[in-house]
């Protein structure tokens, strides 16, 4: 019996979903990378090798690693799932009846593994050899995309997040990422690992316009003991937090959601780029973004789904109370102010805890890693010179599906 449960940020990690991108990275160019939310183009082979080092480190720690492309290919083997995905991702509204039909016919002949790579990695007009009578191709350049690549699928943390006994399938804030969510909807609905299993879908499973109620998993920290810490960032709105909180309370899966206001800024795109949980009483933090007086609210509720919101004096006291610890130990980003800013940008705070006091982080963040080490936190270093250019570290690149509580 599969057990889908994520009880904390720091308990023993048992199963995780990651994505090793290749095709999407080959489609990244200096002229399109910013639209695709990357700051730079990546060296494709090197990025792949770095990702392999990351997954090997996870396996060495006894973690079962699921690869998104494989799950997607196995989902596409189910005819109903394949029909739904092709009709959703290649919709008549997106391409017009004629061209959508031509693209779907062309794609449906591919083996499932190849099709999964195209759906995540993109397809340019010049890569589709068939002629179409539609007006659409005639109005595009050969290098324009029929299917835009999804390089941010690398950051599996955001598209869906498991919170205690269920999952939120997140409506994403940016158009460049919204199609990712449909891949996860299909996997959780049809893939044999998940279909018919006993877990709650809190939010985001229906196809609808979620308007301003967006939420991304990088902003959601399952800190344990029935509490969830959420950042309201460039990507996660108060409306999205309320939707998730209401569902958590309705299903009796959480007792409290603690919400922090973050600047709407690229450098702190998600809460986990400035704060992560490393041991029961220990967090890594970038204080320039999360000062002591940051706006903080506590959300509580019951199985009616009603929410009670109260503003809190201190986020630190609120977390201490939720975790029942006397004093939080906050390890700040290392080095002088210049080095700290650089290392935060290179995801020094975005570490993935595999068990209490043991974290995976980029080896390049020497000042911060040294501080972790002095505080008794063991850092398992991984290379990230290429992967880090996407602005995400080990936590961003992992979606825990099974993890012990505290």
Automatic annotation (TrEMBL):
- Segments spanning the bilayer are none
**Cellular localization per UniProt:** Cytoplasm
- Respond yes or no to whether keyword Cytoplasm is given for this record: yes
Catalyzed reaction equations: L-arginine + H2O = L-citrulline + NH4(+)
- Enzyme Commission number, as recorded: 3.5.3.6
One of its Pfam families is ADI
Catalytic positions are 396
Any single GO molecular-function term of the entry would be: arginine deiminase activity
- InterPro entries with a match to the protein in the record: Arg_deiminase
The residue range of the signal peptide is: none
**This protein's UniProt keywords:** Arginine metabolism, Cytoplasm, Hydrolase
Pathway listed: Amino-acid degradation; L-arginine degradation via ADI pathway; carbamoyl phosphate from L-arginine: step 1/2
Q: Which Gene3D superfamilies match?
A: Arginine deiminase, L-arginine/glycine Amidinotransferase, Chain A
The family note in this entry says: Belongs to the arginine deiminase family.
Q: What is this protein called?
A: Arginine deiminase
Give the species. Answer: Vibrio marisflavi CECT 7928
Biological classification of the source? Bacteria, Pseudomonadati, Pseudomonadota, Gammaproteobacteria, Vibrionales
């Amino acid at each position: 019996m599969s057990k889908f449960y994520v009880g904390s940020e720091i308990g023993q990690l048992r199963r995780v979903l990651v994505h090793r991108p290749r095709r999407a990275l080959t489609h990244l160019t200096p002229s399109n990378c910013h639209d695709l939310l990357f700051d730079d183009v990546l060296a494709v082979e090197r990025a792949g090798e770095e990702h392999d080092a990351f997954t090997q480190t996870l396996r060495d720690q006894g973690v079962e690693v699921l690869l998104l492309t494989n799950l997607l290919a196995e989902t596409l083997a189910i005819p109903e799932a394949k029909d739904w995905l092709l009709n959703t991702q290649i919709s008549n509204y997106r391409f017009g009846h004629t061209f959508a039909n031509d693209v779907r016919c062309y794609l449906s002949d591919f083996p499932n593994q190849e099709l999964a790579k195209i759906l995540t990695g993109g397809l340019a007009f010049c890569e589709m050899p068939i002629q179409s009578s539609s007006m659409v191709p005639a109005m595009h350049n050969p290098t324009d995309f029929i299917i835009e690549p999804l390089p941010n699928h690398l950051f599996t943390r955001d598209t869906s997040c498991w919170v205690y006994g269920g999952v939120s399938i997140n409506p994403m804030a940016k158009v460049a990422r919204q199609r990712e969510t449909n891949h996860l909807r299909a996997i959780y609905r049809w893939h044999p690992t998940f279909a018919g299993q006993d877990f709650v879908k809190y939010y985001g499973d229906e196809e609808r316009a979620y308007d301003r109620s967006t939420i991304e998993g990088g902003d959601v920290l399952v800190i344990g003991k029935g509490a969830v810490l959420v950042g309201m960032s460039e990507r996660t709105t108060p409306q999205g937090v309320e939707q998730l909180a209401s569902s958590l309370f309705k299903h009796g899966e959480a007792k409290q959601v603690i919400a922090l206001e973050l600047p709407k800024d690229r450098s702190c795109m998600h809460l986990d780029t400035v704060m992560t949980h490393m041991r029961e009483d220990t967090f890594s933090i970038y204080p320039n973004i999360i000062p002591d007086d940051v706006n903080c609210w506590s959300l509580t509720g019951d199985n009616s789904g009603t929410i009670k919101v109260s503003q809190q004096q201190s986020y630190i006291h609120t977390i201490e109370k939720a975790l029942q610890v006397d004093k939080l130990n906050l390890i700040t980003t290392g080095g002088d102010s210049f080095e700290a800013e650089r290392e935060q940008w290179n995801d020094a705070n975005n570490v993935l805890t595999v068990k209490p006091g043991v974290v995976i982080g980029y080896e390049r963040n020497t000042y911060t890693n040294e501080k972790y080490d002095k505080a008794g936190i063991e850092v398992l270093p991984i290379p990230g010179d290429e992967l880090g250019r996407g602005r995400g570290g080990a936590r961003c690149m992992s979606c825990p599906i099974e993890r012990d509580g505290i």
